Structure formats: structure tokens, C-alpha cells
Amino acid sequence: MTTDTAPAxxxxxxxxxxxxxxxxxxxxxAGGGPLAALAARIVPVGARVLLAGPHDPALxxxxxxxxxxxxxxxxxxxxxxxxxxxxxxxxxxxxxxxGLPADEAYDVVIAGSGLDAVESVEGARLGWGGxxxxxxxxxxxxxxxxxxxxxxxGLHRMVAASPWYADRDDAAxxxxxxxxxxxxxxxxxxxxxxxxxxxxxxxxxxAYPDPGAATALLATDQLDRRTTAGxxxxxxxxxxxxxxxxxxxxxxPARLAVDALHAGLGTALAPGxxxxxxxxxxxxxxxxxxxxxxxxxxPPEIGVVEVVAGADGWRWRxxxxxxxxxxxxxxxxxxxxxxxxxxxxxxxADGRLLRSLLLDACLRRDLDALRRLLTGYADWLAGxxxxxxxxxxxxxxxxxxxxxxxxDFAVLDPSWRAAEPLALEVAxxxxxxRFAAGLxxxxxxxxxxSTLDVVGLTVVLGGVAGRELDRPTVAAAIEAEAAVxxxxxxxxxxxxxxxxxxxxxxxxxxxxxxxxxxxQLREAxxxxxxxxxxxxxxxxWTEDLLTSRxxxxxxxxxxxxLLSGSVSYRVGRLAIFPARLAxxxxxxxxxxxxxxxxxxxxxxxxx
Amino acid sequence: xxxxxxxxxxxxxxxRYCGLxxxxxxxxxxxxxxxxxxxxxxAPGHPYVQGTPSLLWSEQTRRRAWxxxxxxxxxxxAPFVYLLTMQPQAAEQEREGTIWYxxxxxxxxxxxxxxxxxxxxxxxxxxxPVTVCLYWHEYGMxxxxxxxxxxxxxxxCHGYRxxxxxxxxxxxxDKQLAELRRHRRVASNRLTxxxxxxxxxxxxxxVYGNPMVLADEDPTFGxxxxxxxxxxxxxxxxxxxxxxxEIARAELGTDHRCTPAALRELLGWANLQxxxxxx
Lengths: 607, 279
Known about the structure:
A: alpha/beta, 13-stranded mixed sheet, 21 strands, 43% helix, elongated, B: 279 residues, 2 domains, 11 helices, globular
């Protein structure tokens, strides 16, 4: 093996580099996301670390306390990384796994892009098992391996519009799948394979929604056991609901992820897994205490939020101050909502997510359960109101951020807070409108009629909660929703106005907001077709009724004409003329007296 | 609006509850179940427009209607339960005797049965004075009315339910509620809306006597035999009032009563386009 030196002195080129290739992705979470946060947790100070395969350059910031070697196949990425590294002790090796110096060993090896991305198109292929063996060899006794494995039957493949086996991307020069006997395809097989290589498998995390751009890492042992945990429900839904609008999908990944959780399949259907393994020594170092969940949501400056298990349950662990920028004070930004990461302390509220309970009750048409849940929710909001207004996190606590345990309600993530107090009715209407819009556009079965629009259903839900909401209140709630969403997404004034228009225009026959899911588009089309059929039938019936009423009117007209032309009618009319005149005069007099009486109190007040 | 929505002044009661006053009620965007029944909540033989919502009394009726192919179903509770909230019971009201509803068909049906036998059974069973409430059709039949009057019963009629939007008595249910609250017991020879109304109004319930078969009774949903099988607790000269109250609560959908704002949305009255027209 010969080693050449690139212009950038820290880049080693042992051969096998790909010159016209880049592994850098634009859709990865800022700051390296939960994977970077997890890596930072397992790398001790001063450790020698090998980043095998492409990683987000931001990971280097999280590993500033370590001595890092990056093994990359892309020359372009290697040069970019060397520039970014600056003065830090970072070495870059550009080539395939053969290029890894044979005499070097590391305290931690991280393969956060899986093992396929370590191999280059150049040179002989080692295969998945060969790459693993090479990395294990590079691991010191007592060292740790953090490895990502993609799920060949993961949720991301189930919702994809194109089948994985027809992949035509540039990276698909070889397509791996479940048929490859040399590659584990689930966490159990991976653990067995690592054990065969002399490693002791440790913690495992399910990666959602995309194995290459995970925004949530959830401990698999907890994920499979705590299937009703509101935290997992909210995190999985949030992570999987963020697919970009217009992207074609077969079905809604968020719905599928939540169903998988409740069915105990959160790990089995995860798009990928991140597993930690150790090369044992005697005595071995104590494994680090790792979080139950690492989640990146909201604006990038907030960093990754962690949840850790304690003796008294799960607790929030806010991002380290160094890992986040200082959020703008609400008075400075004049936005309706802001995120306060310091609120993420203390226990995580335990219970089931209110949205899931409500959806379940809607599907089962359990009106009693809906009444109990919504009344409890409205009462809970009212209990936090001061002078009819809500402040802080409760003001924004929608059904997707409230957990229910028995009769107790609590905010799940208290970090989003209202900048200004919100009227209780408006806060409730906002929450119910969001639920109604999701219920109708998501195509869920529910116990109400198709003739209700989103605002109408919001009013009905308010009634189920025992509250008299009216349409003007719901209109104010839509404005508030636009303001809060604008703050969460960082929209400017123009975009916010556009959003208000979009929210007002949401119809039950629209597909759900987000990616173009085939199932949801088809359901929206079916709803439109049913509505059209209903209106056509109604129009036919109205036409028939009009015809029948017109016929009845003609008959009445004919009878009136016949009677008014008769002698007896004319004589009778003449006879009662004085009486009719007297009645007319009496009515006029009565009207004048009433008018006078109505005016009198006004005059008295004026005096 | 379907003309059946006007029967018994149902639309008028709902309009009053929704704060629309005593005038002519606006059109309802759906079919309001106009009587307790053991089918899909809608009267057989009526022309229904496909896809139009059905506003049903109970959750059980909704499930049954769905199972026989009806869709767009909403449980709103019976109009009578809305009337009950508008006219709360006076605490000091005295109750006496029994209000007895001989089973009726509507004017297109003919009841087969012996009124004399029924009268004898009522005399033997009822402990106090009896008020017999006849359907307007039978009330108008002098022969039938006389039979009950000669037996010493007070004979009344709550009014005309109306037909094709005409002659509906908007206070039909009000009169019925007032009468029910004057009596200790409500009884009939069939389990009908009136018995459930009576239970909801605080009466003890009894169902006994010849059920008087209709000449052309529709056997689709099982008829009187099925009613006796499914609700045996409400049959007999004496029934348990607590059990009866629970059943009536479910069958009338008391817990599913909507708030006025919600009901306005469900009936299509939230954005009224038509001018109010008084009768």
C-alpha cells in the first residue's frame, strides 16, 4: 500500500478514493442531529475516534474533546472536511476500508452511515461482513463500536412510492436487501454477528424517520415495552410527519409509525437501528448511562433534547448550553410563540397521548369516551386560566402535546410557550380546530356527518367538551394557529398571511397537509365523489320538491281565483269591508302607541 | 327539509333549543328520527335522499342503521330530551294516576285488536285514575273514543303530528310532557316512544295487554316479539324504575344531547341563508 499526500496536509490518500462523488446530504438534521448527540455521549475525553464512512461535518464539533480520524471514500468530502476541521486534531483518510492504517487502533469506532458507505467503488469489495471485521480489528480492547444498520423492511420502505429493489440513484451501484445472507437484517441478527466478532452488544436505538437523517433515536428496549407512552407516540408522529409536501408516498408514515408503536413493532419497523457494542476487557469499563430518547425538533438552535430514565421515571435533559444558540427573547421577535429549552427539566409527564385517545374514540364512535376526554381537557385548560386567559406552555397545549393518565392531564413538552396570553376559548378552539382538520383531511372515520366543514366540526367538538364555541371564536383560533405556526417555522409576515388564507380554506374533502400519500389522495377523491353524489341526489330531490310545491301553488291559485270571482265572495268582501277598515286603523294606532312607548325611556335617560 | 322532520313539532323544539325562537323552523340538512323504532331509525317507505345525514336518537340505533347499509349517521338524541332541558321539572308537581297510550299505527295503517278487552285489563291493573291518550286518528273515531270514555277514563289527544308541513302542532311535545308530568305511571300495550318519554319525564313504566297487531306490519326488524325479547325489563304491569330510567336514557340518547351551537352546525343552521318565515 502506498500513501500519497494531498495538498491539504492532513488528508491521506491510500488509494480507492472516489474523485467525482460526494456523500454529503442536504436533508440531515442541523448539528448532526441525535446521532451526533449520542456519539458525544459515548466518546470519552481524549479518546481516539475513527469515523468510518461519511458523517455530518457538525459531528466534529461534538467530538472536539477527542482525537478524530475520518475514513471517507469521497475525495470532495475529504477536502471539505479538512477545511472545516481547522485547528482541531482531525486526520482524514480518503479511500476504501483497505486504506485504514493497519497498525492503528481506536477507542471508539463510529459507523453512523452503516457499513456500505465505507466501501468505495474502487478496488476489491470486502462486503458488509468484511468491513465489519476490518473495523473490529481497529478497535482497542475496551473500545466501543457505534454502528448503524438499515432495516430492509423498515417503515421508510413500506411508504415509499418506488420499490427499494428498483433503486436507480447514483448510490445504487449495488442494491443490498434481505436476500444477502452475509448481512444481518434485524437487531437480534446484528447482536449475534457482533458477538461472533468478539464484541459484547449493548444499547440499541431505533432511528426514525429516515436511517440516514434520523431526527429521533429511541431506546429499543423501552420502545417495545412502553407501547402506550405518550412521549414515544408524540416523538414518532412528529418525526414521521415532517416529510416534505409534494413528495409521493404510498401512505402516511406518521400513522404507520404510531400504529407500529402501539402494536409493539416500533423496533421491528424502524427504518434503521443504531447499536452500541464493546470490545470486552477484564475488568471492562462501565458502560455510559445513555438516554431513552434523543430527539431533534423545532428550530435548529435548540439542539437535541434528551430523555433519561431515572429511579422515579423519565426525565428531560435539556441540551447543553454550548450546543445551542441563545433563543431570541419573545419581545424581541414579536412572535406568538417561542421555545424555552430551560423548561425541559424535571420529569416527563406520563400517560397516553390525548390525540391518540381521541382518534381511537372517534374510530370506535365512542361518544362517551370523547365526552369524558374532551370535557376533562377543557376543564384542565380552564383550571390553568387566570382571568379567562392562558399563558405559557398550557396556552399552546394541543391534543398532540397533552398526555392523559387516568383523569389527570399534563403538558408533554413544555418548551413551546405563548408569548402573549391567549383567551381560554381561543386556545381551546385552536386545539380542537387542529384536531378536526387532521381528522377530516386524514380521512379518519368519525361519529359526525359529512356535511360539517372543519369549523363546524370544531364547534361540535367544543360542544362535546361542554363548551359553546361559536364561529367567530374559531376564526380567531385559526388566526392564532397561523401566528403560532409562523413562529415555529420562522415564517415572515407575508408567509404568515398566506398561511392564514390556507388554513381558512381547508375543506374536509382536501387531502392531508404534507407529502402526497397515495392512500390519502385516494381517500380525498372518494370523499369528493361521495359529496358530489350527495349534492346531486339533493339537487334532484329539491327539483322534485319544487315541482310538487309549484303544482300545489297553482292549485291554490286556481282555487283562490275561482273563489274570488264568485258572487258570494264579492258580497262577503263588501260586507266585511268596514270590519277590515277598522282592523287596519286599529293596527296603525297600536303601532304608533308602541313606537311612542319605546321612545319614552330614551328621552327620560337623556333628561 | 324532509316533511317528517316536522312531525310532532320536532323541528320547532330543536329550533327553540337552538335559540331561533318560536317561528317556522329553518330547513334541516338531514333526517331527524321521528319516533323510537327497532330499525334504522328512519320510517320505512319514506323517500330518502342518498347521502343525506340521519340524526338518530341512540348509539344502538346508529350501529343497527350502519349494519343495514345506512351511512352519514349522527347520534343527537331525541328532540324530547331537548324539550326536557328547556322545561325543567317543577319540584312541587303532584302526580296522580296513569296515562295510558293504546298502541297506534299512523293514519295509513289499521290496528287489529279488541279495545274492550284492553279496557278491562287496564281497569284490573291500574290502581288510580286513568287518562287514555289516543292518537289523533283514533281520537277522531267517535266509536273508539266513546269506548274509553264509557269506561270512566279521561280521554285526551296531544294533537296532530302534521303531514307534508301542514297542520303540525308545534306544541305537540310540550302538551305531551305536561300530561306525562301530571301522572305517576305511563303505560301502553306496546313499547313505544310515549313510554320512553314517560320514563324520562319521571313516570313508572308498564307495558301489558294485547299489543294489537297492525294489518300490514313490517316484520323486517322482528316486530313486537323481538321487542319483548330485547327489552323484557320494560314489559309487565310493574317494572323497576331505575332499570327503566337507564334504558330510556340510552334509547332517547339523553347523554348525546348536543349544545345549541353544536346542534346548529349538525342541523345546517349555522349559516342560514333563508329569511325567517312565520306560519
